[in-house]
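CORE FACILITY INTAKE
Project code: CF-77B
Contact: R.S. (postdoc)
Sample description: multi-component assembly, two entities in total
Requested service: structural model of the whole complex
Turnaround: standard
Below are the sequence entries exactly as provided by the requester. Do not edit them.
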Amino acid sequence: MHKLVFLLATLFPVPLAVAQSQPQLNLMPMPANIQLGTGQLLITQSFAVSSTGYRNAVGADILRFQEQLSRQTGIPFRLKPGVAPVFEIHSEHGRQAVQKLGEDESYELTITDSHAKLTSQTWLGALRGMQTFLQLVQITPAGFAVPAVTIKDQPRFPWRGLLIDVSRHFIPLDVLKRNLDGMAAVKMNVLHWHLSDDQGFRVESKRFPKLTEMGSEGHYYTQEEIREFVAYAHDRGIRVVPEFDMPGHSRSWFLGYPELSSGSDPYTLEGGGVDPTMDPTREQTYKFLEKFVAEMARLFPDAYFHIGGDEVDGKQWDANPKIQAFKQAHGMKNNQDLQAYFNRRLQKIVAKNHKIMVGWDEILHPDLPKSIVVQSWRGQASLAIAAQQGYSGLLSHGYYLDLMWPAARHYAVDPMSDAAANLSPEEKNRILGGEACMWAEWVTPENIDSHIWPRNAAIAERLWSPQEVTDVSSMYSRLNAVSLDLEWLGLTHRSARTHMLQRMAGDADISALQMLADVVEPVKDYNRWDDAKQGPIDFHAPLNRMIDAVYPESDVARRFNDLVHSFVLSGYRDKAAEGLLRNQLSSWRDNDAGLRPLLDESFLLEEDAAVSQNLSALGAAGLQALEFLDKSQTVPDSWKVSQLALIEQVKKPQAGLLLMVVAPVQQLIEAAGGQIPPN
Amino acid sequence: MHKLVFLLATLFPVPLAVAQSQPQLNLMPMPANIQLGTGQLLITQSFAVSSTGYRNAVGADILRFQEQLSRQTGIPFRLKPGVAPVFEIHSEHGRQAVQKLGEDESYELTITDSHAKLTSQTWLGALRGMQTFLQLVQITPAGFAVPAVTIKDQPRFPWRGLLIDVSRHFIPLDVLKRNLDGMAAVKMNVLHWHLSDDQGFRVESKRFPKLTEMGSEGHYYTQEEIREFVAYAHDRGIRVVPEFDMPGHSRSWFLGYPELSSGSDPYTLEGGGVDPTMDPTREQTYKFLEKFVAEMARLFPDAYFHIGGDEVDGKQWDANPKIQAFKQAHGMKNNQDLQAYFNRRLQKIVAKNHKIMVGWDEILHPDLPKSIVVQSWRGQASLAIAAQQGYSGLLSHGYYLDLMWPAARHYAVDPMSDAAANLSPEEKNRILGGEACMWAEWVTPENIDSHIWPRNAAIAERLWSPQEVTDVSSMYSRLNAVSLDLEWLGLTHRSARTHMLQRMAGDADISALQMLADVVEPVKDYNRWDDAKQGPIDFHAPLNRMIDAVYPESDVARRFNDLVHSFVLSGYRDKAAEGLLRNQLSSWRDNDAGLRPLLDESFLLEEDAAVSQNLSALGAAGLQALEFLDKSQTVPDSWKVSQLALIEQVKKPQAGLLLMVVAPVQQLIEAAGGQIPPN
């Protein structure tokens, strides 16, 4: 991870020239075309919106727009009859009652110093343009205002999604709704709702009530709630694609309906051991699914229906003699063939209900019709192969928010890069877009927002904006602004950390704790838990530790890294940068002393003592390095050896936390040691 | 105000000895009796609650208790059947379906290192005891725990209320609900809902629909919402007393029903000029009120019904010849007599609907029956007179949260002090308690929480705890803890400031702005607005300025003041205190430079430039004073003169803000100038 941060700084050395040549409006995703005008349009209390062209049922959307503008500015707008509108919206047409993939989302927004006009082909495009307008609002010496600008915009990909797993940890609807608001703000248009998995089945079925009665521990959505939620998403221009993961990842189904499974274990949600899998050889299974899919297809209006299909380990199949006999009888060579058989049967059921089947990489099989959509957790190469075979695809590899990657790393992943770059235009058209994935092993309603935001906005930009928009420095600057804007939607991605740190600290002052939290990140990828060593995850365990509270990406560390980089580039002569570095390093050096009483008084903070000491040691080491650089002294070998030993030690994760300022301090130490010559 | 802060510090010179002799549990209100035991009871994931004795419909309350405990600790409790409960609740009886004044709220809570037991006569008492348990939860080196303790507790007064005005600014139900949660946490038991006033009528009336159609601008509660809200309050042990202010403060009624008024103006909610008043001389008025009160009496189940009755200026009566003729014909000497006539008629209507009438001081008149309750905004003397005449009373004088007083000043107000102290025991019994009042001229849903909390908790303690509980230092220490706890209820009294400051700052870093916000308070009493000079308040104006964002009371200033006081008491020899003072003063001195770019870029911050400069000047002056004290130098007269001139200048409010660290810096300057001799 440290290597990665260092690498990023090297790859993107603060390209100010590029950033400055673009108009730096705080828009995310960046629109396809921007032309800056002169002046700005003031937003006063009499700001009024009108709509022409298509006019049915748009009032609620305009009201919501005004309420959001009111939250951002603190201005209660007073719409007086007869006052000429400042913001005119003209849409030629309305929207589909069920939002369609590829429905026109383009819009044009023209703002002068006296007027704003938004035009679009569809009301869906108008919704996107209103979000752009809201992002343009800024405070100025003259008042709240939007700059004069002409924007012509449309998305690069038609499918820009976020998967939220509500099975591992149940996420209530109010939390999901504020995330829909966030998605709308960054123009994402698909919520992929991962509704069932081993750990819980989350949708009421009237045909099969034991699915939730026995498989949800009481945490599920009623059908009435789902209908209301789907309507909420539709109002914001977001499709809801349900996923019911089959034939694997389905233990929760078997508590109520063990006859569906390939084994005969008594099932519990805690599980462990062999992964329970549906029995694809019994006709009863398909009879169940006929009824189940028909019920769910009516409940979820979207044209797409996700059947999962991932990670079938086949152990339960291998252990079941009847299933083995079935395979032999049907000339199936392996479990892949058996799963393909299941998928073909399932696809027919899905199609009979007028839905298009979506599944993960593993469903790709020549026997399946070209109409299906493959979602790839494996990478662009998988997508390219599928596209060449005539299948449509979505990229999720590289967009897993639960892996705790920095925004820049997600941002660098393009669905059309690598193997996909060499596809024919027709094949490229089959790549519909992508989806960020919020798998919920380690999130709760309390910290899910901070695990999604703001990083998800960088993925949203990748999927909406032109491929050439890749400036990381500009991205981070705009990400900071959009992150602040998202707070007005009620998202808790920033505020929850404060509450969680305070919980750990009792009623003590938390400023020292915040300083530590500012420079750590959770361990990356799947390094938090090792099933082989630690056994299955306890999904009921409290998630109230430091690793659960901190942000996945440390802004403070990134900026410190940039500062060290620019200090090094100056040949160690930039005194302003040096002063800032000294202040920061001194604060870190002194922080452990301030934090000590808290660490001693709280069982939740006890484990963070080592990382706090490490930060202090790094601060001291960095300050010494600056001393040596300042005096151009020759550095004693013993110092070099001891400092590099320190670096090796503090690189190790402590309590699941990585100290993110190791690499830049190492750079200072190596510079002082003469290993990095001044420019 | 500065004088007051200084005075408080003098009156209550950090009485550590007293505070330490009390068991310092973070309870607020302080229980009547506490006996500390040995050890503590750990709260683990298997923490379970049982109830015995009265058992009807208590499950929801226990579930809510566990959810709150879960939020505080981050532990998802898993109740396994067969596990022995850790926390037993035994209540002899249930609760009244409509909560009664004086219903038994006592409870006993006994906690050992293995078990907790709560016993009460009524389930209402059990609810109070559960809140005490929640406040006892703390983080320790061993885990979350409650200390071993025996508490026997009951309230001092049976009526402990909070008035919320929803007329001047409409407050939605979700905001009110979280405030009910806050009230329950500090054992308040009455929400006094000020539902109508000149600026808006907030309750749906099916008999008189134009009250809200024309008098609410669409901001009102439906009857269904009210029933649900009253039930929500009841669940938390809170009575809801509605107030419909009559015959004054009633302009909003007249938009729909001008015939009720004493004038013939066309009415608008904005108003201004003469205060519209009901016409007490027309029989039609009483026919209207017969129907209206009957409808509202059914909607609000509480036994008490508040008719307002305050501030009738009589101008509209004086200007109406028919009303003058009526007065003459009935031998009324003045408008007080006319209002008493109205009140007698109204009281009969209220009584006919089986309700007890409550009104402000002005309703007190010998013609009214002793059953009415007088709420005093005038003071204890009014209450005492009423009690002597046989009337029951409530104190609100001294508890007006909109006056921006510090918690200590409210805390010092006792319903039984001054004139009330000399009442006979029987007369004293007529003083039922008191109510904090949140008048809503200057609050919105965004900042109302911070105007109520945490100060309201100090008033709650005054009304619940024994009269002898008056230690201000202990109060502030516990207030800090309870303020943090209240955050888990969703109250935004701390977090809203961050959002509001960020709004003013755009996407800039707000740390310098927070440093300024930390040491200012809004002007006090009614000094924000002078009707005579500025005309009527525009209740539709944005409340998004610094004065709207900052806390009514500055903790930083209070602590700085304490620190200066203790430094002075040490004879200027306490080097640790001096170091802290220096750090703080330096930060203030340097803050203006950091804040300058923000002030220049934001129209909302422009007005705060002077107060920022003043803080810097104070920081510099304080540092100079410390220099002189340090060197025991004779201070040049010119310095003294210039510094005291500075003090005079920075005392003046700027943009409605008072700099709350003037007094302690003045103390340092006077000390350096030899005006305060060292001890």
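Facility notes:
- Chain B touches chain A through 43 residues (CB under 8 Å).
- The CA atoms of residues 384 and 420 of chain B lie 5 Å apart.
Invoice: internal transfer
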